[in-house]
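Work Package 4 report. The design task specified in the project plan requires that, given a folded chain encoded as structure tokens, an amino acid be chosen for each position. We show below one input record used in the internal validation round.
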């Protein structure tokens, strides 16, 4: 008999534990405090920074792609002065607002190396270093579920 009661209690508490572990309760309480934010998907945005470094004075063939569901961004530029830094703000108005970020550029003949860095909210999430004649730096961050 006591094992049946324990089993019943376990099965009754399991959904509550799972819901709280997923953050559903927290989101529900937050939306009750500020219902307008819940309607528009929250006020949080992601800051995306693209940086290029090199010992050359310029870079060539700059390409940036940001795969945002509601706000996709593409940038293509030539002959960019270094160091290069560009910041984008991606609104958190959808379930998964940011799917990927890609950036690439090549260095001119002068200089030995080029480095690309992608940061999300001031945290480096991808980088690539390349050196030699015709060096190109390409970095990419894709949405990944599970361990990273």
């Amino acid at each position: 008999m006591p094992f049946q009661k324990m089993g019943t209690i376990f099965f009754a508490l399991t959904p509550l534990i799972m819901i709280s572990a997923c953050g559903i309760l927290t989101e529900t309480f937050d939306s009750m405090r500020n219902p307008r934010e819940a309607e528009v998907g929250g006020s949080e945005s992601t800051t995306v920074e693209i940086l290029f470094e090199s010992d050359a004075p310029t870079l060539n063939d700059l390409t940036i792609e940001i795969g945002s569901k509601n706000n996709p961004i593409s940038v293509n530029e030539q002959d960019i002065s270094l160091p290069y830094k560009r910041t984008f703000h991606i609104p958190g108005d959808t379930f998964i607002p940011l799917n990927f970020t890609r950036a690439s550029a090549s260095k001119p003949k002068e200089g030995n190396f080029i480095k690309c860095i992608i940061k999300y909210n001031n945290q480096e999430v991808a980088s690539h270093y390349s050196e030699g004649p015709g060096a190109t730096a390409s970095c990419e961050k894709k949405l990944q579920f599970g361990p990273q």
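The first helix runs from residue 2 to 21. Validation will be extended to a larger panel in the next phase.
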